[in-house]
Amino acid sequence: MSQPIATAAAPSLARPEWARARRIVVKIGSALLTDRDTGQLKRDWLASLMDDVTELVRQGRDVVLVSSGSIALGRHKLGLPKGALELEQSQAAAAVGQISLAHAYQELAAQSGLTVAQILLTLGDTEQRRRYLNAWHTIETLLALKAIPVVNENDTVATAEIKYGDNDRLSARVAGMVSADCLVLLSDIDGLYTAPPNENPNAQHIPLVTEITSEIEAMAGDAGTELSKGGMKTKIEAGRIALGAGTNMVITTGKVLHPLRAISQGCKVTWFLAKQDPVTAKKRWISGQLESRGTLHVDEGAEKALVAGKSLLVAGVTHVEGEFERGDAVIIRAPDGRELGRGLSAYAKGDAARILGRKSSEIAEILGFEGGPELIHRDDMALHRK
């Protein structure tokens, strides 16, 4: 019997997907961070969240935060009226609020010995390949250095035409970018219901979704709060992005202290389960959806290493063809011309041609900057099955 798309049986414990998640992206909405009446930061709530983050980090997990709140905080400091703001007013409020928000994260993280870093993104940063790579490398480096990236949409420069419009979808893009195992959307509601529960007292909670269908979309409704541009509809759209990237997603309430710890304790949530893991999803994307910009020809030793699951080192590449930039997809060919697979090049064509066949210790001297020995990392490669 196949698994149902949705079920209404409430879970009693956290699902194993939560325990297995080694990289977690957490989206935090404005309504959770700021007081509706005073516009002040809910410091006690944020402190409890950072305690949860500390606990996850000590378990050896990577955590990325996608935080709203800058406009809500800034508009209060600037004395802007309630209700919709003009674009320029939103940008000004964000410029003021980002400083306060970043300082709060920094101060609370420091109490647990953690380091946080602010990253501001726009839509183009996740859609233009070079900017995508720059953002990805920055986040990966921060995580490797045990820092907590705090990401927000760059409202100070975003325009009406290029804005995400909500941080639900931004968080899903970030989760896909970093190959997260789980995306957590902290909301003012504890998951998806068959109908908006504030409108329909007979609405039933849906704890598990295995496929986003038109029926699931119809359950979402459109309502957001005064402080948020989202609502359940944008969370379903975020789920579609996340699941496509192989990332599981959780919608749960953030209106409690220690909301991440509550997930571990089996609180009421809605899980959206991906049908493939992030690595598999990324490799499928590389192999089938990206247009190749060039070709790398490898020697027999490199071919054997690739088959054994290794990365492609510059020492094993004999020559290159085409015109490609760092991050572009390229074809990998064996000495006899067979296509072994495809991958994302870590170097542009000009730099790659200069270091072919050279030892890793020589790369910095040749190029004038430090670069890794991998021309294509194994995680950025999809080989054809024999």
Q: Would you spell out the secondary-structure blueprint of this structure?
A:
Elements: E1 6-7, H1 16-20, E2 23-28, H2 30-33, H3 43-58, E3 62-67, H4 70-78, H5 87-110, E4 115-121, H6 123-127, H7 129-144, E5 147-153, H8 167-177, E6 182-187, E7 192-193, E8 205-206, E9 208-209, H9 214-220, H10 232-244, E10 248-253, H11 259-264, E11 269-272, H12 278-288, E12 292-298, H13 300-307, E13 312-313, E14 317-322, E15 329-333, E16 339-344, H14 349-355, H15 363-367, E17 374-376, E18 381-383
Parallel strand pairs: 2-3, 2-6, 3-5, 4-5, 6-10, 9-11, 12-15
Antiparallel strand pairs: 1-9, 7-8, 10-11, 12-14, 13-17, 15-16, 16-18
Helix pairs in contact: 3-5, 4-5, 8-10
Write a compact overview of the structure shown.
The protein is of the alpha/beta class. Helix content is 38%, strand content 21%.
